[in-house]
UniProtKB/TrEMBL annotation:
Lineage: Bacteria, Pseudomonadati, Pseudomonadota, Betaproteobacteria, Burkholderiales
Family matches, as SMART domains: HTH_ARAC
SUPFAM superfamilies assigned: Homeodomain-like
InterPro entries, sorted: AraC_XylS_family_regulators, Homeodomain-like_sf, HTH_AraC, HTH_AraC-typ_CS, Tscrpt_reg_AraC-type_HTH
PROSITE patterns documented for this protein: HTH_ARAC_FAMILY_1, HTH_ARAC_FAMILY_2
Top-rank taxon, per record: Bacteria
Name under which the protein is recorded: AraC family transcriptional regulator
HTH araC/xylS-type domain sequence ranges: 198-296
Keyword Coiled coil (UniProt): no
One Pfam family from the record: HTH_18
Organism per entry: Undibacterium pigrum
GO molecular function: DNA-binding transcription factor activity; sequence-specific DNA binding
Keywords in alphabetical order: DNA-binding, Transcription, Transcription regulation
Length: 300
């Protein structure tokens, strides 16, 4: 959901003026859009966060300083981790400034996802670098996340799932112990994975019109949102939110065959927010609009 929240923060560090706008808010995470610009006074004051945050630059360039002669340059190919209580300072090479998405997961969910992903409980841990070079697929996912956040009707499940995917890939890329990562990935048996996936498929099949959230589905099968997102894609071949759309489309298609009801009515009954959303989803999967499908069936 889009939250009309615009805040300008004046940090103790006057070298950075930061404007933050909340784009999405749920129990699992909040996402803010930040635009940072350098100020004339290049102060040496340090900052500290009150929560573990994932910073995803989308434009510009920044330098994060963790200590004397310790800094990392980040642009739109990177993820930066800001740990609770960990001092840092941000500067802007070339006085360009930067623009970024700030992902703030709930403390409990973040801990579960980190344990599942890399076997640590905190984002700022010895086993993780405080930054990572994103895999190309994650850079594309970040852009997909941006597009979803600016849709007229925000798909909560898609936003959550993509955010979890980007977090997962960024911390895995930052992991210093690859063998530990491999051990963590295989702690769950194949039978339990399949059982969890089938339980989620059942929930979605029974109530496709419901506005499911990733953390809600995960709680039903006693899994973390990260674990569910990963194993569902591996077992089914689709992300959870796309499986939900496919299920809604199958239900709508059957309703179109069984009655002459208005397409808008069918769309809403199947769980789509609008006729246009239904039409675009239908076309992307079946290669034709619902109207064209009806016409095709009526002449066959």
């Amino acid at each position: 959901m889009i939250v009309p929240d615009l805040i300008t923060w004046s940090f103790a560090n006057p070298a950075m003026a930061l404007t933050l706008r909340t784009l999405f808010e749920s129990e699992l995470l909040s996402i803010r859009h930040g635009v940072a610009r350098p100020a004339p006074d290049d102060s040496k004051e340090l900052e500290c966060e009150t929560a573990d945050l994932v910073l995803l630059p989308i434009a510009g360039v920044l330098a994060k300083h963790d200590g004397p002669k310790q800094h990392v340059i980040a642009n739109a190919n990177h993820a930066i981790f800001l740990g609770t209580g960990q001092p840092y300072r941000i500067t802007f090479p070339g006085d360009i400034g930067d623009e970024a998405l700030v992902l703030d997961f709930s403390k409990e969910a973040l801990m579960q996802m980190l344990v599942d992903a890399v076997g640590v409980e905190q984002l700022y841990a010895p086993a993780l670098r405080p930054h990572s070079l994103l895999p190309p697929a994650s850079v594309l996912n970040r852009e997909l996340l941006w597009r979803h956040l600016h849709e007229p009707v925000v798909n909560q499940l898609a936003v959550q799932e993509i955010s979890v995917s980007v977090l997962t890939s960024s911390v895995q890329a930052a992991c210093l112990d690859r063998q530990q990562l491999q051990r963590t990935r295989h702690t769950q048996t194949q039978a339990r994975r399949r059982s969890q996936v089938e339980a989620v498929k059942e929930l979605i099949s029974l109530c496709p019109q419901q506005e499911w959230a990733l953390d809600e589905l995960a709680s039903h099968v006693h899994a973390s949102p990260f674990h569910l997102a990963r194993v569902f894609r591996e077992e089914v071949g689709l992300p959870v939110h796309r499986y939900l759309v496919r299920t809604r489309l199958a239900r709508a298609l059957r309703a179109m065959q069984a009655s002459c009801a208005d397409l808008t009515q069918i769309a809403h009954a199947s769980g789509f927010a609008s006729h246009s959303h239904f039409t675009s989803s239908f076309r992307s999967v079946f290669g034709m609009t619902p109207t064209q499908s009806r016409q095709r069936n009526s002449t066959s």
